[in-house]
Amino acid sequence: MRRDPNDLDRYTASERVIHWIVGISFILAGLSGLVLFHPAFWPFTMLFGSSTWTRILHPWFGVVMAVAFLLMVVQFWKLNTMGKVDWQWLGRIGEMVSGDDQNMPEQGKYNGGQKLLFWLLVLGTVLLFVSGIALWRAWFHFPVEQVRWAAVVHAATAAVMIGLIMLHVYASIWVRSTIRAMWYGTVTRAWARQHHRAWYRQVTGTNK
Amino acid sequence: MAWQSLDIRRRSATTTPMPQVRESTEVAKLIDISQCIGCKACQVACMEWNDLRCEVGYCVGVYDNPPDLTAKAWTVMRFTELENDGRLEWLIRKDGCMHCQDPGCLKACPAPGAIVQYANGIVEFHQEHCIGCGYCLTGCPFNIPRLSDQDHKAYKCSLCSDRVAVGQVPACIKTCPTGALHFGSKEDMKEHAEQRIIDLKSRGFANAGLYDPPGVEGTHVMYVLQHADHPEWYAGLPQDPAISPLVEVWKGWTKPLAIGVMAAGVLASLIHYVMKGPNEISKETEKEVENETRPE
Fold it and tell me: Do the Cβ atoms of A135 and A143 come closer than 8 Å?
């Protein structure tokens, strides 16, 4: 539903649906994985039926996440190729964080931080998937030394990924009027002009 | 199940201290390989006492039968034909859980109470708490635990903790016809081993010795080896077993640290929001856009 004809389309329905499949499966895989990560998170077993159910379901959440994320990568990788301006943006991220984003280099559909996050999540998902297969004893039997490596890689990567996603979520809350792009696909012109000036010009055909 | 007469000294995935007030004698099983004839009576006794019935297997060409430990075979004889100085030696090692003082399985286990170590040193799996992840297989330096295909729980030798709890010796000890298996306090077993080692040395086994590896802080199942300088001759008994450094990294201080960093991330976000406020669209930009989009 479009209330303001001036709003700009940012995400198609299929892009949004796939994003939320990735998001929900990440949360489920994360909550069930934390149970196996440290006993401090043991109460999360109650969300999944039982401790054994948590162990059974966790890899399947991971498979759903990996497959959905692969589809997302197909949709988005071209938009996330890093350029010189992205590194310039990242070099001045301190200004952005301190709340002064007026002088940041102009950004296209995604800024340098978003692009870097994208590639880190690609790397993290690959590591989680490969190491997760080695740990999935219900289906696979790898030599014990490889399983030991997989356990370390899986736990370390997961911890980093949770940190990255917390950053991703916080950024979308901190930068106002952003989340609506993932809910129903549109953003206001002012939002686009302030945060993604080059993309704004491109989609509106103006040179302001 | 937990035996009321046995205090639990360590409990998997538990971060607070276990009962420590009562003092218990540490027990040990001593396996004197030089006196084992490979009759497998201990395998049978183990099956009988623990109500285990392994699938009937087949001959794999050697005496090992079943050829490996399984969820239903908690102990197996491993036969090695060793040619040493032109002499043939038949080394027969009763394999099974070593009941490490520092158990890698317990360290790796994520399920609270699925693996416990009693104050007497016995390491036991409590299958009703086991979630079937197989992390204990990763933690074990001796390749002992097995995941059952039937119920996806992990199993291994319990050192007949139920028998020991009521003052009985484990079933395998009870049945051994040659006196190769002994059970008692760890101290007594070490003393007995010393005598056996003196005897073996007098018979020409200059390197006879006790296998009680310090890498896992000693074990509650010990071997008298004719060739203690070559434990690997005994079907690959590890020379210097220890919990893999990978498991120590995975299960050590890194996880509390990671949790701390994650929590700090959440807190930092909150503080950032409170200090800097939301990143809203500036009134200026809003006005500029309004001017642009106003119909001519």
Answer: no
DSSP symbol at A80:
G
Q: Write the burial class of residue B190 (CB in 10 Å: 0-12 exposed, 13-18 middle, 19+ buried).
A: middle
Burial class (CB in 10 A: 0-12, 13-18, 19+), A108: middle
> Taking the model in full, what pTM does it have?
0.93
Cα–Cα distance, A103 to B114 (Å, whole number) = 57
CA of B269: which chain A residue's CA is closest?
A: A170
Q: Closest partner residue to B250 among A35, A145, A151, by Cβ?
A: A151
Q: Treating both helix axes as pointing N-terminal to C-terminal, what angle do A51-76 and A112-135 enclose, rounded to 10 degrees?
A: 140
List, in order, residues 6 or more apart from B181 with CB less than 8 Å away.
Answer: B29, B30, B31, B32, B42, B94, B172, B173
- Predicted-complex ipTM score: 0.92
Q: Out of A99, A155, A163, whose CB is closest to B262?
A: A163
Q: Which of B15, B146, B281 to mutate to test the interface with A (most CBs of A within 10 A)?
A: B281
Cβ-Cβ contacts under 8 Å for B197 (sequence gap 6 or more)? B208, B209, B210, B224
Contacts of A42 in chain B (CB under 8 A): 13, 112
Contact predicate B139/B247, CB 8 Å: yes
Tens-place pLDDT, residues B186-223: 999 999 999 999 999 999 999 999 999 999 999 999 99
Task: Mark yes or no for CB contact B111/A51 under 8 Å.
Answer: yes
Q: What are the two backbone dihedrals, phi and then psi, of residue A97, each rounded to the nearest 5 degrees? A: -65, -35
| Cβ(B242)–Cβ(B141) below 8 Å | yes
Residue B133, helix vs strand vs coil:
coil
pLDDT band at A100 (very low <50, low <70, confident <90, very high): confident
Residue B15 burial (CB < 10 Å; 0-12/13-18/19+)?
exposed
In the chain, the amino acid numbered B38 is: G
Would you identify the CATH topology of the domain A10-78+103-204? Fumarate Reductase Cytochrome B subunit (1.20.950)
The catalytic residues of A are: 168
